[in-house]
Amino acid sequence: MPHPHDVAVVGAGPAGLAAAVEAAEAGLDVALVDAAGQPGGQYWRHFDERHAAPGDARGLPGGPVFTDLRARLRALSGSGRVRYLPGRQVWLATRDDDGTFTLRTTATVSAPVSAAASVPVSAPESVTARALILCPGGYDRQLPVPGWDLPGVMAAGGVQALLKGHRTLAGKRAVVAGTGPFLLPVATGLARAGAAVAAVVEANGTLGWSRDPRGAVSAPGKGVEALRYAASMARHRIPYRTGTVIREVLGDGRVEAVRTAVLARDGRPAGPEREIAADLVALGWGFTPSLELPLMLGARTRLDLDGSLVVVVDALQRSSVEGVYVAGEATGVGGAALAVAEGRLSALALAASTGDPAGTAAIRRVRRRIRRARRFAAAMHRAYPVPAGWPRWLPDSAVVCRCEEVTYGDLRHAHADLGATDPRTLKMLARPGMGWCQGRICGFATAGIASCLSGRPSTAEDLRALSGRTPAAPVRLGELAALAEETGGGGPAEETGGSS
Amino acid sequence: MVVGAGVVGAAAAYFAALAGLRVTVVERGAPGGGTSSAGEGNLLVSDKEPGPELDLALHSQRTWREDLAEHAGQWEFESKGGLVVASTGDGVASLRELTAHQRACGVEVVQVAGAELRGYEPHLSEDLAGGAFYPQDAQLQPMLAVAHLLRLARGLGASVCPHTEVTGFLRDGDRVTGVITTGGDLPAGAVLNAAGTWAGQVAALAGVPLPVHPRRGFVLVTEPLPARTIRHKVYAAEYVGDVASSDAALQTSPVVEGTRAGTVLIGASRERVGFDRTVSVPALGALASKAIALFPMLRQVRLMRTYLGFRPYCPDHLPVIGADPRAPGLWHACGHEGAGIGLAAGTGKLIAQALAGREPDLDLAAFAPERFSGGAPGSSPGRPRDTGEARP
Ligand SMILES: Cc1cc2nc3c(=O)[nH]c(=O)nc-3n(C[C@H](O)[C@H](O)[C@H](O)COP(=O)(O)OP(=O)(O)OC[C@H]3O[C@@H](n4cnc5c(N)ncnc54)[C@H](O)[C@@H]3O)c2cc1C
Ligand SMILES: Cc1cc2nc3c(=O)[nH]c(=O)nc-3n(C[C@H](O)[C@H](O)[C@H](O)COP(=O)(O)OP(=O)(O)OC[C@H]3O[C@@H](n4cnc5c(N)ncnc54)[C@H](O)[C@@H]3O)c2cc1C
């Protein structure tokens, strides 16, 4: 085993990048593992730097904050103070008896490959460290709607990723739907890239968050951002339909249109309907934090205001597991600026705990910024909730789990006839979340359906049952077997049998 | 009154209701939420040596196939057969000896020469010397079995109380006259302890020792592969140590099998580590490497998830089935270790016969609850004997 690093950071999005840079500059020996091929994470996802086109840099979201962090990371990894491992996913995190942590990584793969395709199995690369800063971010939260399994329906973040990462426009005429301010950059991004955006369909009110007295004043930058998006929406003449939801995605073999309905006073989609032609539907209902690694290590979690399961952290980003810090979306969805601040704080706090007093003033400043950003995030969550009772709008034929083709009717049957009242039992009886995505896409919906059918609100327990996953990312059996040799698997405590 | 709605409790409830008894099932969590949802669903006869467990396994096979035939589709019963392979000539010889004994007990088994193995499984390693095919080995989906057995029991008048934990017993002198639960007191003529891995704790509430302990197992699930890549349940058999030794026990590698969804299940490891839920790298690694030894093509295949469960095991690897003379009114059906799914139907039917005051089809003496109270009590299993396990 190589000597342990002072800290291993997982994720090079806004939070992880800030954490790694700050920790290394405070003198710690840092490893930074990121699934993506280049730093940036979700929000700062961008074109492949090896194939940059003129003018690309101007579009870089996050602008100077990102380019500054990236430049510092380059310098630090150049001088060996950060061991940067891009393109590697952590699939297992364990805590060893002596208190150090081991991260097992594998080369990133995003789609199923056929078993026949012979890819050399690379040696498992593992990272050991005395502390962890986990910044795994999150991904789009999805709610099922009839027809969402048609080609041409995508997660808003996926559309954005194609656009930012590959400069690929996923369609010519788009409808962006769901809830929350993150729909706006997706819509305006599509419009800027040349797509016609037929509508933004927002389940909640208008751009209220920029006027919410509790939030916006405390995050002036955000207010400005909102105004900019609003202006951009107007410039591209994108209709913004509030209090409206998609009832059905229509099409024969692929998306042709959506049918929308206005939400009535009682919250049901009883209002006037309309059909909007489109060949691309981008859906986003907020974000689901990636909690595989924190849960694997036993970190405590709770239900956040937006209904997501998030890691419980203290005022210094420490989780309930000693030595494990968590920053960014995994502690509560709140945008890139908050993620950066939390990443910095975790690094400063860790450095302080190992005897570096220099950061005390900085810690105070960052904490103030975090409190402000959290207030803003809270206001946003209050303004853009997932509509209550949404499962009741689904017809029995609506597919909930696309991997296993489980319909709402299947789930209702498992509830009514077989007595399933919690999401785990639903999963065991009807298979939602058993397929390739392992419930990353349908887990939130399954939890919501289980609780709605049982006439109770969703609980942290509901979500926890579907959020833990080992491995955190798929890994080849060959790599796993190599670990057995390394660790002398099948030792005395093991009784896996067969000595063949 | 059945305590525990795992597969064993559900089967007992169904057969008891069928026998005309008034049945209530209390379960502290969600039905099936215990070990029955944390293992696999192999119904194996291939891995059992002649003895009481094999007799029970064969009886249970018949119960699943005959008594429950009309419902088999509900729990996806599939008789796909098991292929046991050996890598050495000695292994083949030992296997042949075992199969001869098994055949004498009524197990169907076909000898398979090394060259024929790939006719059964095209992707098997070429380094195998021979094997045996067991057409009776079958599988079902345990959670569906639990849910539908309970549904059928309800149809026969049983009631099921989920989220109700037994915290004590109602007594009349020595006699057990019901249970104390988080939902109130529930009197009953007989209480059946079907609390699986937690049955020892439930028995303790009645003041009787019952050495049921957890034995951890991990299962690997791969990404989906094309249909029929792996067709049967496949595992390696090697005899431990000296072939001449009288308790030559069958040791097994993990069972490798394809599922309807295309995923491959590889299970399971066996460790005694209490109720420790942390992931064990050596256990996962050993499972992977042994599966690859059987099917080299698995090296490239990706692991999608793993899960774990705790088998309820007794020191002699036999379940506990029957009335407890130490606490009249208390009955047990627990401790089925790694074979509880397969043994559940037979266990349920037999205990229902006994509860109804009839002579059970099979003598239950070998499974008597008080058998541990004699000589060395409790937890000294001696040399681990792995026959008590439907391999996964
Ligand atoms: C469509 C869209 C629009 C948005 N618009 C805005 C906006 O306008 N303003 C705003 O403030 N925010 C916006 N956001 C939110 C923003 O993306 C997040 O707040 C921010 O990216 C969170 O940073 P993070 O560091 O927590 O996570 P991420 O940016 O998600 O980074 C996490 C990183 O960790 C890696 N990772 C995760 N798990 C592993 C693992 N097991 N092993 C290795 N690496 C791993 C990921 O690959 C990723 O690179 C938007 C998000 C989306 C999807
Ligand atoms: C990895 C693994 C693989 C396996 N593979 C196979 C296989 O292929 N084939 C096979 O046949 N077997 C297999 N098994 C074994 C099988 O799963 C078990 O033997 C079987 O599930 C035991 O069923 P049960 O009903 O006795 O216990 P459980 O399913 O655990 O049910 C007991 C129930 O009692 C409840 N309970 C406990 N205490 C109380 C209380 N105080 N009050 C109320 N309720 C209580 C629990 O919540 C639980 O639901 C495997 C096991 C594991 C772990």
TrEMBL record, chain A:
Regions that span the bilayer: none
Keywords in alphabetical order: Oxidoreductase
Pfam families: Pyr_redox_2
Signal peptide: none
Gene Ontology MF annotations: oxidoreductase activity
Domain (FAD/NAD(P)-binding) ranges: 5-342
Record InterPro entries: BFD-like_2Fe2S-bd_dom_sf, FAD/NAD-bd_sf, FAD/NAD-binding_dom, Metab_Enz_Cyan_OpOx_G3PDH, Opine_Oxase_asu/HCN_bsu
SUPFAM superfamilies noted in UniProt: FAD/NAD(P)-binding domain
PANTHER family: ANAEROBIC GLYCEROL-3-PHOSPHATE DEHYDROGENASE SUBUNIT B
Protein name: Thioredoxin reductase
Species assigned in the record: Actinacidiphila yanglinensis
From TrEMBL, chain B:
Name of the featured protein: Glycine/D-amino acid oxidase
SUPFAM superfamilies: FAD-linked reductases, C-terminal domain, FAD/NAD(P)-binding domain
Organism: Actinacidiphila yanglinensis
Biased composition (Basic and acidic residues): 383-392
GO MF annotations in UniProt: oxidoreductase activity
Entry annotated with the keyword Oxidoreductase: yes
Pfam families per the UniProt record, alphabetical: DAO
Keyword Oxidoreductase in record: yes
Biased composition (Low complexity): 371-382
Region (Disordered): 370-392
InterPro entries documented for this protein: FAD-dep_OxRdtase, FAD/NAD-bd_sf
Superkingdom to which the source organism belongs: Bacteria
Keyword annotations: Oxidoreductase
PANTHER family in alphabetical order: FAD-DEPENDENT OXIDOREDUCTASE DOMAIN-CONTAINING PROTEIN 1 (PTHR13847:SF287), SARCOSINE DEHYDROGENASE-RELATED (PTHR13847)
Domain FAD dependent oxidoreductase: 2-353
GO annotation, cellular component aspect: cytoplasm
